[in-house]
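Here comes just one.
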Amino acid sequence: MAIISSYPVSTPQLADQVLGTNTVDASGSAVIGNPTVQYTLSSVKTLVDQHYKEKLSASNTGTITPGNNNTGLILTFGAAQGTLSSDVMIDVNGKVTFNKEGSYIVQQVYYAQATSGNNIILNFKTVQDGTTQVGPTSIVKFLSNSTTARERINITSYIDVSISPVYYNFWVQNPTSGAVATLQPESTAASWGTDVPSAQLIITKLI
């Protein structure tokens, strides 16, 4: 092979090709032998240009009361959205179904309120297919100093869907006996914008 510096310099076009080593396939599995392959610059550009696009935004504008027990409850996020042809859909009972494979970011935003003077503990978890907890338990502890104060809770998780469909539920638990904690919406001035929901779910996908 000639010395690379001896080749002419040219302006690349999207249809041009470059050599590379194929180490993993489309599913992320290792490729045996790591063969040398050709990649078009167009395909390289598509890979580099990947970004996260919102696929679902759902919210609950009512009061959510988990109660004082070890069971907890499944969080709901308003009306049903999406269909079987959508990347992701949700029903009125909070069941979130991923219909297509891919990498997703799940953002949960909650606003907690409790009886003044109480030390509050709220636990949150994600459950796959109704049985398996995915990721760690998230917890928030705070001392409520007002019956109208709100504690904002943010939970971000990454879900890699390799086999679809698969569904998830998001749970909340209040284990503190006697301390009444709820997730509460917050009204804003009519001239300002939309009210703040008690629970919001935003799901984006890498495309």
The chain has a mean pLDDT of 88. The helical segments are 41-48. The CA atoms of residues 53 and 64 lie 29 Å apart.
